[in-house]
Amino acid sequence: MSNPVRPIRPSDETTLAPAAAATPHASPTPSGWLSSGASAPGTLELGSVLAERYRITGFVGRGGMGDVYRAEDLRLGQTVGLKFLPEAVATDPQRLAMFHNEVRIARQVAHRNVCRVYDIGEADGRIFLTMEFVDGEDLATLLRRIGRLPSDKALEIARQLCAGLAAAHDLGVLHRDLKPANIMLDNDGRVRITDFGLAGVAGEITDITSGTPGYMSPEQLTGRGVSTRSDLYSLGLVLAEVFTGKRVFDAKNVAQLLRMHDDGPQLTTSASHDLNPVVERVLLRCLERDPLQRPGSALAVSASLPGGDPLAAALAAGETPSREMVANAGHREALSVARGLAALGAIVVLLLAMVAVQERVSVVNRVPFPKPPAVLEDRAKAMLGQFGYTDPPLDSSASFFYTGQYVRYASGALPSATRWDALATGRVPVIGFWYRTSPRPLVPYDYEEPVPTIQDPPLTVPGMTTVGLDTEGRLIEFHAVPPQQEDANAPAPAEGASTEGTSSAAAGATPPPDWSRLFQAADLPLSAFTPATPVWTPHVYADARAAWLGTSPDLPGVPLRVEAASYRGRPVYFQVIGPWAGPPRTSGPTPQSRLQAWTQMFAQIGIALVMGITALVTYRNLKARRGDRIGALRAAGVTALLSLTAGALAAKHYPDFNVEMLRFVTQLGQTLFVALMLWMFYMVFEPAVRRFWPEGLIAWSRLLGCDWRDPLIGRDVLAGIIAGLIWGILTSAPLQWASLLGREAAAPRSLAVLSLQGVLAHISIMLMNVLFAMSAAFLIILVYALLRRAIRNRWLVVPLTTVVLTLGVYPDLELSIPPSWLSIGMPLLFSAILLTVLLRFGLFALVVTMAVGNMTSFAPLTFNLRAWFAPMSLITIGVVLTLALAGYYAARGGQPLFGRLLDE
């Protein structure tokens, strides 16, 4: 246990003695030489008791800053080391401050490969330090005694030394005097880093050049600064001496040492031994003159050594590996060309299969979709002019909408073989288009909505209109708000118009509206409908109402009701109503089965419990300084960026600063809440997973470190895309499976209708899919971590987690899959796929899986490149293929992309 001599400046021509003389170290005590009653070579008598607690049992050695004794702690009954300051040094304020600094710094580091420092004491005016007693010898003595160490022993020492140094660096502590004389090996061969007399906290060190010149980095030797990478340079020098048996820079003075630094390190070994090339590369990286070219951490050095598995070593020692250790663990070998190309081929095949499935089940491919939004909007404007609404609006908005009315009706009332035939006519309300105008800005009351909806803002302002069209551009619904104040001189409404729209006008009365224009807009023959008594009341006030019964020429045998109303001769309401329609303003929630009610109640209780437990565990982890705070902040930052970008791309913007600011603040608040929740989830599961299953976070930790070209990240991208496409195919066509089994015809699959609004809106949906994937993946691994913490048996945790995930998705699938075994089996399969990806590849692969699966499941995919929504389909396919190519590029790890395939 040694201490450095006075600081040596590079400008000095001081002669550099051998390491043992330059820094006096504690000489090893021969086993058994101390006996009861023997006198110690130091100044203290053997057997004397200090501070009524420590009995001196032996003299260990004498260093530059004092004598070291072995003593027995009478209070705790254990052996400790006592390090005394010389009387002359104790009166030197600078040296005394260094002594106190050693205790202050060293006490922060608690690791099995660091010599523990306990406290400072004083006896008879002498100051001493109590520390862990290491029964062994220092590395410098060992190397002088036996020379070069065997390769396996050198690797073992190197890994332990890296682990101890990493523990100090994790706390921001720089050793600054790492050398063989300050490294002890106990009788069990375990490494202990000692002597933190020159240690300091990164960013707070001013006496840069203090230390042992022969083991300094170039930047420390020349006074340019010190960092963790300076310690790594010293680590490289020590490891080079361990592996070769020789000092790298055996200089006689500082000037010669500086010249050697300029010439670069020379690693030489004895003639009978060759240095392992892998070890040599690691050492030369540590000894790079540019600090940025050195490894990122001591754990990176350990992971780069042959056969290194720092995670297994940390877990075996009962320790929680740091994020840096996790990031540097695992393999970094390039994926073979054969496997990489096979993965790309599988992705192409699965992507084509995904498009084929969407062609069969997606609503945009099952319902006629000939007209793009601009054409439908122009058609709605023309209708408004025909109905007498010619005043230019101040604001307007349009969008597609999806409704499940017909799907629910057909599933329960129509024969399986023919229930979906009506989709080809475009008459049934599965997907449609609405266009709204207003004399005021159409600002949604729900500020979380990025754009106005068909019902938000409500239809209350005079002059507001709403036109609903099917995908062929035929009128299915019309609403208009009449003036709030009547004109007293205006003609009265026609008599009898309140029951039938065909009565003649009374003298001086407003003539009834021309209902034929609305029937013509709906592409329905008025002559085929008979008048009836109105039963549906309009949203707005009307002074005349009318109704008709008939059938559609496209839907023979299907009864239709048409309801209409007018005010002062101008239509304010028109609606085509089929047997599938229910009053939207009075209908209650969809009836639930008992199983659905129980599962939803279970989900709500579970969410409340998870939120409470998450908040409690987050608080405890913060208090205990557990968890990767930097990683959590980066994940939360990415979440916020995705949310704000997606919201900005999809949102409707207004020329009103107050409105824009209010909507932005609302969006920001929602974004911060989601980011906070993900931050809390991360702070809960990350330390737990890192403790019992760090392999699941390796690729994720490397991603957070911006190591984009890491082969493991590339492998997980490829695996995640493949799993995501498989998962997407299965979840996109649950009824398709029933149809193939002859149990049920396939119903149309809904999609994110916002994707049909244009490229920017589609990109917004894709970004939201990535955000959802992160949130869902965090929640899945959080559930797994909580169950794993509560239940130690991993084989029980896996099926239990699968069941919990299944209960979360079961209510969404029960109504769409009548066979009960499919209703249960398919969600179990979906959950099992996600959990398999998580356990086999880790968190990052699960995020990719869910992002790709959702991105392709709800996108308007098609093989028909002439379809107006084909650009959105091509964007989705292009993003997946680009991601796959980027994954292959990263998986090759800098190796030739096609290996020797292209060699002549």
Descriptive key words:
904 residues, alpha+beta, eight-stranded antiparallel sheet, six-stranded antiparallel sheet, 21 strands, 45% helix, disordered N terminus
Morphology call:
elongated
How many strand segments? 21
The main β sheet shows up as:
8 strands, antiparallel
> What is the SS-derived class?
alpha+beta
- The number of helical segments is 28
Q: Separation of termini? A: 62 Å
What are the low-pLDDT stretches, counting only 5+ consecutive residues below 50?
Answer: 1-40, 495-507, 811-819
Strand content: 5-15%
Write out the strand line-up for the largest beta sheet, numbering strands in chain order: 12-13-14-15-21-20-19-18
Alpha-carbon Rg, integer: 38 Å
Look at the structure and give the mean pLDDT: 80
Helix content bin: 40-55%
Briefly, what is this?
This protein is an alpha+beta fold. It has 28 helices and 21 strands. Among the domains are: 289 residues, no CATH class; 199 residues, no CATH class.
Characterise this structure.
The chain is an alpha+beta fold. Among the domains are: about 290 residues, no CATH class; about 200 residues, no CATH class. The chain contains 28 helices and 21 strands. The chain starts with 18 loop residues before the first helix and ends in a 13-residue tail after the last helix. The N terminus is likely disordered.
